[in-house]
Amino acid sequence: MNKTMTLLSTALLMAGVVTSCQKATTARSAYDKQFENYPTYNGDDLELTVDNKGTHFRLWSPKAEEVILNLYDTELNGEPYKTISMTADPNNGTWTASEAEQLYGKYYTFKVKHDGKWLAETPGVWAKAVGANGKRAAIIDFAQTNPEGWDQDKGPEVKNFTDVIVYEMHHRDFSMSPTSGIANKGKFLALTEEGTTSPDGEKTGIDHLKELGVTHVHILPSYDYNSVDETNLQNNTYNWGYDPQNYNAPEGSYSTNPSNPTTRVKEMKEMVKALHDAGIGVIMDVVYNHTAENDGSNFELTAPGYYHRHWDDGRYSDASGCGNETASDLQQMRDYIINSVKYWADEYHIDGFRFDLMAIHDTETMNQVAAELKKINPSIFVYGEGWTAGDSPLPVEQRALKENVAKMTDIAVFSDDLRDAVKGHYSNAEDRGFATGKPGNEETVKIGIVAATDHPQVDYSKGNNSKFPYATSPEMIVNYVSCHDDLTLTDKLRKSMPDATDEERMAAAKLAQTIVLTSQGTPFIFAGEEIFRDKKGVHNSYQSPDSINAIDWHLKSANRDQMDYYKGLIALRKEHPAFRMTTADQIAKHLVFDKIDSENTPNLISYTLKDSANGDSWSEIKVIFNGSGEARTVELPEGTWEAAVKDGKVDPNASLGTLSGSVTVAPRSALIVKR
Ligand code: CA
Fold first, then answer.
1. φ and ψ at 6, to 5 degrees?
2. Three-state DSSP class for residue 316
3. Domain ranges, ordered by start, for the chain
4. Distance 120 CA to ligand 1 centre (A)
5. Chain segment 91-148, per-residue pLDDT in tens
6. pLDDT one-digit tens code per residue, 133-153
7. Strand 216-219 and strand 281-286: pairing?
8. Which CATH fold would you assign to the domain 40-142?
9. Fold type of domain 580-674
10. Could you give the 3-state DSSP secondary structure of residue 339?
């Protein structure tokens, strides 16, 4: 997820494995116990409200000795036009102040006196609008930020989360290249532009998404983050954005004018509206697990010590690998996370949340997150990285780990099982996987195929990453082979298949994604994979320039065949509920693996989806994956079968030919037939 993170995903896994063998630690470090009895406040008027009686401020800071409110005319520079000493409300740890006028257009900061010292100014933790670089909170009229028709705006209805097809993208990756044909490059508004094309006349932007058929886009962090100087956007700055600054305001560099606090709010809503109008949901990547700064974070500047976890000696604990971790197990932080996602769902109509390093949070918080979001919109999809990037004072059994997903309701986790088994180890560039001819990964791929649920034919003792069926429902699993982290699939294939041709690599890419898009669980693809985009071999491109990160849309015409294949796979999945079963029982009953001696015939998996699984119009579907570099012969059960996937082509109507008896499956390819 960020600068230090790429090598850590397995470290996390390891952390899970290692620490689970240790004695359960106490619930909280000795140092953090001091915060347990802080009074908390969960009112909806935290920090700022404007009504017909004026403008009201309420900062939660239970141990502050004094709090000052500064009011400004400008977003940066200059002295406050007014400074107000706030009044303590000792019952709930808050400090209040009011002004009789509606202060629209003004800015404010708080200043807290703690242990006899004045801390630096902060916009607080609940700034919903900010000026450039997010140093001062802005007072704006949110009623003025809604696009036309916003009241009727609604994302796609999701019956089961296995119906969702996620497309993960960064705003700049998607539109910065001159080949995108998009006017608002790198901006929220890029996704509102219809009719854009590449120089070769291929659709780009939102039209490309519609053509591809994905149901949801997952946008990389789009709240206000720290690393890009919003006053100097000409400086060609790029960052993934895993360095949170203001959690409840959009990032300024994605707006056309970071200095106007209304603009970013308005433009983000316009983006959501445009995607919703296209039938596409919007999932936000959220990073509540750590803050960009330690002592300088808004959390520390409002309630020192409280929001972060520490070891017994008072040092920041660092399960994020970024210098700190937050404390979801403390009430005010738990409420903060819950209220923040609720705010994004309410105000911005967000359809899903992807929790970065979710296992830094506790399962109870995640359960409450999902339950509260469900009340707003039952279609909201919540998933996350079920691991941490280092050890945490939070006991293993309380962490929202992949291995603990069964303790969580309506939460899904990424399957690193399928990811690593299909393409090879994520951080060992040369390592190959099932789809690239390395034997021994068959059982782990099967774990992915059954969405890590209990299945009579899957032997979890042979799993590479997981040794037990950790999911009790396919709705708990997100399957993928690549994302923004680590090498793109294209680069991974180039490094792990150095002697192959790009044509052979593209065949392997198709096979890998066929596994993702036909497996049980929710499929997830990384933007541009469908046109074989690369990042020039850079595995950790979090701050690489656009020349590395931007998708070159020339690739769409050059690799049109890949695009058509992805599009076909997506259509196949959408039309056939057999690939989207909703319970573990269904999978155990309707998905039957063929017995294959993997010792003698490695890199071959074959299974049947039988008895019109999940109400499918096809009574039987045979799925065969050949990850070896040689053709394999497979015996089809008696009868006539029609091909839906064959020799690198997909046809959701299964008109790629009639097959029976012995059939040959080309090297690195999938064969899917039905009857
Ligand atoms: Ca920012």
1. -60, -30
2. strand
3. 40-142, 580-674
4. 18
5. 999 999 999 999 999 999 999 999 999 999 999 999 999 999 999 999 999 999 999 9
6. 999 999 999 999 999 999 999
7. parallel
8. Immunoglobulin-like (2.60.40)
9. Immunoglobulin-like (2.60.40)
10. helix
